[in-house]
Amino acid sequence: MNIREEQEKREHEYMSPYASFSDQSRGRDREEPQCDMRTVYQRDRDRILHCKSFRRLKHKTQVFLAPAGDHYRTRLTHTLEVAQIARSIGRALKLNEDLIEAIALGHDLGHTPFGHAGERTLDKLCPSGFAHYKQSVRVVELLENDGKGLNLTWEVRDGIMNHRTSGKPATLEGNVVRLSDKIAYINHDIDDAIRAGIFAENDIPKIYTSILGNSTKERLNTLINDIIVSSRDKDGIYMSQEIGDAMNSLRQYMFSNLYTNPTAKSEEVKAYKLITELYNYYVANVDALPDNFKQFIDEGEELERVVCDYISGMTDQYCVSKFMEIYVPKSWKG
């Protein structure tokens, strides 16, 4: 018996009967030999961790566009916080932590530069629309690895596709990540908003803080513990009515006071303009696309979708530099 088989055996001895066992995965689109050391979900986690799209998340906006401070979240630090919260819940519920981590690390790979402002822009421009959760799946199925994708298991791709609020993951692990994503961004976005002076801790309505807590630490502890207590030994992932309602109300408060706040979003109109100009330029100048993206067009992908692939993969800085390269006159050097 090799190390992978020993790990698969231990999963059946230790994990909840409702967990997703590695040796019962629905598999990959392309069959490949098993690893002697790692389970299928461990391999998926490693593939995501080492891919280029994951590394680019460190220079993509979470909420604040191009923040001057070093301590504001980026899309990468958000992803790591989601993974940490989800693993804490999964460990307590005896679920498959490797599957949880793979889904969490991959859930935002398809996010655009400039956060949801970039996503809304591409969705408006592209005839077939654009959504980051669909793009994340497209990244792992097609765009990474020179057009071959990462060939991840079905369960990981299902969790990535369904991490949005309205999603319905097929596994408990996917459901843990879905809730952990909301828990993470609500709380770390509050922390960033307070750091930015958008509002203060005392400004958050007491109707929420009296239930969830008066600090990021307290709120995280309340939400995580509630999920664990509500879901232990059950075939679903649940929150109590009181805590769930308070979290959703706090989320709505964040939409009103941060996500649509004129101060926090003052630069977004520039992001809309920048991405729109780049999109129109590349649609009209296909030869300006990198060869690895033109290859997708040659293979039958629609032009507008490939342009979205290219732009959505850009970091904030690279997006700005490409705009300047195309539209800002260069100094004459003689």
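^ that was protein a. below is b, sequence first then the tokens
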Amino acid sequence: MEALMDAGRFFINPLLYIALIAAILLGYFRVKKERKLFRSRIVWGGREFGDWLKDGILFALLLSVLFSGIGLTVPLQWLVALSLVSAVIVISGIYQLGSFVYLAIGAVFFGWLLNHYGWTIPFGLFDFGGYAVAWDWLLPVGLITGALVFVEGWLVARRGSEASSPRTEKTARGLTAVYYKTKRLWLIPLLVVVPGEFMGSYLPYWPQFPIGESNFSFILFPAVIGFGSRARRTLPGYLYPKHGKRIWLLGLAIITLALFSFIWEPMALIALAAGAAGRAAISLLTMFNENKGNHAVAPQSSGVMIVDVLADSPAEKMGLVRGEIIRKVNGLTINNETELYEAIQVNAAHCRLEVLDHNNELRLRQHVIFRHDHYRLGLIVV
């Protein structure tokens, strides 16, 4: 019964609903922009909401068991500060600052700031006045942060490109080229342990369990991870696996540094600061590399370049992917979208494409064209 009560209180945290609404709005505004630019939505508008919890649920279970099993305890005040900092980032939409290492160290600093200047934030049931930073709970915070940065890296590597949305911009020569914008939000429901004295001071009726002479309580906390980036020089399918690998390696480095606090206690705080600096360096390096050189998707003299492929379309069934160049359709050389669809109508029953793939190798794709399919082949092209 107490476990059910703990799980039920998970739904009291406003951060859960703020993140839920933000995930829905992400899909809504993405589709609205795609319809404005390309007269069609590319990915279902509920994609961000559908992946909001699904992608992280396995990690949530594994990490909850791991954290509880090894006895990592964090103060309730830090979770309150973390909720506030996370809510600000989610509401602002600046998901470039949504990495958990930014949120974690931001919560540490925010709580210290309130305590240092004697400020309080009223919440009705209690007033939140921050806390003094202590080395004993910074180690669990560092380990939890490193683990969630590792999860962030895995999610970026595996899921970062799936809902990346194309946008148009002008090149230096005045041509219309494409870059891909990615904004993702993931929820990781974590079961964390907090000391009983912290819970008793705020919520005296919260269920507790004794270990030795101390009491502890479980809290199911909605940890959020935000990610924002853009791919210009590199196609998202190639950029984000490398980008994600750098992030999960950083997560392992944060865990390693935090463990050195067993030898020297300040290393936990140093691990958080180094993690935030490292995460910023990864983002800046990617941004610098993507903003130089040519666009990966731009008008080509050798044919028509694919910007994206609509789901469940004839183009998807042919195995066409973004970044490929269609050179010929039904034996006719094409140079623009109008010529593409005119060439498709040459053969009312069959469509045969010559496509230049990402390795500059020519391959053939063909598909039976049903009535009116030439109007909805499912291609977004430059």
